[in-house]
Design brief:
about 220 residues, alpha+beta, about 20% strand
């Protein structure tokens, strides 16, 4: 019996040590900034925004400008809103967990283990308000195109190169879900995806982060 309790104690202490190491590494790497000094290669700038709901971060980009037309890929009408918020994450969380009270063990396990599929969340917006939860980012056109390319490659496309809408899946009249590529896990979250996109587009970002705070601390 003593050996049993001793083994359980060692296992528990090992688990605690692993969790503390995980949190420590995450905290340190989220403080390290990447691309802190953005260099503009042209006078042709594009405004985008980074928005958080306290857990999940989105890119907010123009629905239509001279560089890209998201209507074509998404099959949406810009008259419903001139801006589009784009996020990526675990499909089960998105579709089955609109609020934390709806979270089920199976959904959480599939998400953190990387076993579940993913989806892109699209929300049309008429206006964007800058506040503590939404920051303005100015990009040159070259870097903006890199960001567009990064987002595009996560869409699963149909035979006509259009995004595949997940039917009857939105939370409201102006938001939608699309089939997506990639694997969500405890080490690659929705916020990690946003952070990687910023790095890919030569924008300020954390070295690595799991949370919205790890991203936005470099812009506030």
């Amino acid at each position: 019996m003593k050996k049993l309790f001793s083994g359980m104690r060692i296992a528990l202490l090992s688990l605690i040590a692993i969790l503390l190491s995980y949190v420590g590494v995450f905290w340190i790497t989220s403080l390290i900034g990447i691309n802190e000094s953005t260099v503009f290669e042209s006078d042709d700038t594009v405004s985008i925004y980074l928005s958080t709901n306290g857990v999940h971060t989105d890119f907010i980009v123009p629905m239509v400008n001279k560089h890209t037309d998201w209507q074509d890929l998404l099959g949406l009408d810009s008259n419903k809103g001139g801006w589009v918020a784009i996020g990526w994450g675990d499909r089960g969380f998105y579709l089955n967990t609109p609020e934390w009270k709806d979270l089920k063990f199976k959904t959480a396990f599939e998400a953190i283990s990387g076993l579940g599929s993913t989806a892109l969340h699209i929300t049309q917006m008429k206006t964007v308000t800058v506040d503590r939860d939404c920051v303005h980012v100015r990009m040159n056109s070259v870097d903006y195109q890199l960001l567009v390319d990064y987002i595009h490659k996560y869409f699963i496309l149909d035979s006509n190169d259009k995004g595949i809408l997940i039917k009857s899946s939105g939370y409201g009249l102006n938001d939608y879900f699309y089939e997506a590529k990639g694997s969500y896990s405890a080490f690659y979250t929705c916020n990690t995806w946003i952070n990687q996109g910023l790095k890919f587009a030569n924008q300020k970002a954390a070295f690595w982060t799991l949370t919205d705070t790890g991203i936005l601390r470099h812009y506030r």
